[in-house]
């Protein structure tokens, strides 16, 4: 993992954990590792091996590329329920004239919605830091 990827990973991991509202201890227990190991991942002092990266991605239900900061898209469509949730968000976009997605593929629409949600989460975290 490059230095940049390591920094992205540590930040994303910490954000995902905090968004889920769990402690490092709880996450460590779920992943069958130590709290200090999670702390080292989040601080960038240690990088997980590829199997651990997959476990973490599965734990947070995100793609490995998202976890490593290589993609703004968290997940892929896995079920009809996921697709329906994406469709619901897309309905909210329908009032935005500048965003014409009528000719976009399903994957492009999905990526757009997930990126929008990602930006909202990032903004929420930034605002929370500013309040602290």
Distance between the termini: 32 Å
The top level CATH class name of the largest domain:
Mainly Alpha
Please identify, by name, the CATH architecture of the largest domain.
Orthogonal Bundle
- How many strand units? 0
Oligomer state of the chains in this structure: single chain
Largest sheet descriptor: none
- The number of helical runs is 7
**Order of SSEs, N→C?**
HHHHHHH
Q: What Rg, in angstroms, do the CA atoms define?
A: 16 Å
The secondary structure category is mainly alpha
What CATH calls the topology of the largest domain is 434 Repressor (Amino-terminal Domain)
Shape: globular
Q: Characteristics of this structure?
A:
132 residues; globular; 2 domains; mainly alpha; 434 Repressor (Amino-terminal Domain); 67% helix; 7 helices; 0% strand
What does this structure look like?
The chain starts with a helix and ends with a helix. Helix 6 crosses helix 7 (106-131). It has 132 residues and is mainly alpha-helical. The longest helix has 26 residues, at 106-131. It folds into two domains: 3-67, lambda repressor-like DNA-binding domains (434 Repressor (Amino-terminal Domain)); 80-131, no CATH class. It is globular and about 50 Å long. Helices cover 67% and strands 0% of the residues.
């Amino acid at each position: 993992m490059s230095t940049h990827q390591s920094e992205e990973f540590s930040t994303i991991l910490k954000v995902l954990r905090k968004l889920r509202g769990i402690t490092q201890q709880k996450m460590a227990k779920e992943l069958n590792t130590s709290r200090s190991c999670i702390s080292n991942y989040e601080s960038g002092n240690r990088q997980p091996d590829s199997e651990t990266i997959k476990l973490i991605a599965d734990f947070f239900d995100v793609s490995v590329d998202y976890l490593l900061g290589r993609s703004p898209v968290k997940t892929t469509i896995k079920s009809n329920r996921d697709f329906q949730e994406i469709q619901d968000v897309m309905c909210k976009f329908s009032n935005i004239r500048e965003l014409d997605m009528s000719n976009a593929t399903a994957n492009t629409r999905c990526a757009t919605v997930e990126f929008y949600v990602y930006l909202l989460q990032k903004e929420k975290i930034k605002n929370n830091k500013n309040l602290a």
